[in-house]
């Protein structure tokens, strides 16, 4: 090498790189941070892509999609199962007999879905029932104290009997109300006035107290089951350790899998709420509902993560997870406000202070569950997994 070229190289080393666009100095901390986040995001995408091969999960999502997309049609059929009076044209014939049949029959006949017929002879009423001319028999009489006693004869168990019993229960509640009004003058003080009923859809109660909680809670429970299967499968295949080849710690790897699974429930909740709105179901406070689902999802996924790290195999893990969820559902009945009621109140816009405190409690429990998983990850022997 000539002396001129050697002098040129020394000057280049002293002054730094030449050229119009010299590379900027590299920030090792920033590069490592970006690398960690890219690795986490890669694990999240890997986890979400793996769900495409889970036929059971896809079937569950498809069923939820069908329920949410066709909720307006399903509600009519499901409500008619336990409240047949909402379906026009459905009537049951009822034979009314006894000494007070004249007082009871008009009240029963005014009930939607019931057609009352008075029989002077009790035997004729039961003969009509045996021949299936009438669906039930009401035997109304006064006891020695002057109280009205109604004995009901209905068919043996079956779907039709269930529907009929619901109608008769409502009719007898109306009879009881009429009796109380007629005997109000015997009270020492007048009873409180009852507000008149408002015109509302007969399907609103079922939609907000059954259908909506089902669509919001089910994705959270499924997310917990997914994380149990995912972690157990990674442990059994030995791929959980391979994921540490990425610039991530063991805690970061499991965190990424938990986050990916916990995101599924709120994303599904957003889709289901949108479909319900398209079907005409008004949601007063969707943001609170999504926050509630997110908190429950983190809570359930945290429970699933702890179970997956402690159980030896998939069967025992799913058994422990199911038992934990059932225990949580039992404990939820002891709360001042049931989670289903919390969902219904947020949906119809009648949230109380207890409702907001319940939401805060679920968020706190979700944070504690996530912290419990991280503590378990620090204490567990990674080599034994």
UniProtKB/TrEMBL annotation:
Biased composition (Basic and acidic residues): 1-16
UniProt entry tagged with the keyword Cell membrane: yes
Annotated region described as Disordered, given as residue ranges: 1-32
Localisation per UniProt entry: Cell membrane
Protein name: ABC transporter permease
Listed transmembrane segments: 56-82, 210-232, 253-275, 287-307, 319-336, 356-377
Topology within the bilayer: Multi-pass membrane protein
Organism: Natrarchaeobius chitinivorans
Classification via PANTHER family: MEMBRANE COMPONENT OF ABC TRANSPORTER YHHJ-RELATED, MULTIDRUG ABC TRANSPORTER PERMEASE YBHS-RELATED
GO CC terms in record: plasma membrane
Residue span(s) of domain ABC-2 type transporter transmembrane: 88-334
Gene Ontology terms, MF aspect: ABC-type transporter activity
């Amino acid at each position: 090498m000539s002396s001129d070229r050697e002098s040129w190289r020394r000057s280049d080393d002293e002054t730094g790189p030449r050229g119009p666009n010299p590379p900027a100095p590299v920030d090792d901390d920033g590069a490592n941070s970006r690398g960690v986040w890219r690795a986490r995001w890669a694990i999240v995408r890997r986890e979400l892509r793996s769900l495409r091969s889970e036929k059971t999960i896809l079937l569950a999502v498809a069923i939820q999609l069908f329920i949410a997309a066709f909720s307006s049609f399903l509600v009519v059929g499901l409500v008619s199962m336990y409240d047949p009076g909402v379906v026009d044209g459905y009537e049951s014939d009822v034979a009314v007999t006894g000494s007070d049949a004249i007082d009871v029959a008009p009240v029963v006949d005014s009930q939607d879905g019931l057609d009352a017929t008075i029989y002077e002879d009790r035997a004729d009423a039961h003969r009509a029932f045996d021949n299936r001319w009438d669906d039930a028999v009401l035997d109304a009489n006064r006891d020695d104290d002057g109280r009205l006693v109604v004995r009901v004869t209905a068919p043996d168990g079956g779907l039709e009997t269930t529907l009929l019993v619901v109608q008769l229960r409502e009719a007898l509640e109306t009879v009881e109300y009429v009796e109380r009004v007629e005997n109000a003058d015997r009270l020492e003080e007048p009873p409180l006035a009852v507000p008149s009923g408002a015109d509302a859809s007969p399907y609103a109660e079922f939609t907000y107290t059954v259908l909506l909680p089902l669509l919001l809670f089910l994705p959270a429970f499924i997310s917990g089951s997914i994380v149990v299967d995912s972690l157990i499968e990674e442990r059994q295949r030995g791929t959980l350790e391979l994921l540490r080849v990425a610039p991530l710690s063991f805690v970061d790897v499991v965190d990424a899998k938990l986050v990916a699974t916990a995101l599924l429930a709120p994303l599904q909740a957003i889709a289901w709420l949108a479909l319900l709105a398209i079907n005409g179901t008004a949601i007063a406070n969707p943001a609170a509902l999504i926050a509630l689902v997110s908190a429950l999802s983190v809570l359930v996924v945290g429970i699933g993560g702890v179970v997956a790290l402690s159980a030896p195999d998939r069967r025992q893990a799913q058994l422990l997870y199911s038992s934990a969820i059932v225990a949580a559902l039992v404990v939820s009945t002891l709360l001042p406000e049931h989670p289903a009621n919390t969902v219904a109140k947020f949906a119809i816009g009648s949230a109380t202070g207890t409702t907001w405190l319940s939401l805060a409690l679920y968020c706190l429990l979700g944070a504690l569950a996530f912290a419990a998983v991280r503590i378990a990850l620090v204490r567990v022997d990674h080599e034994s997994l």
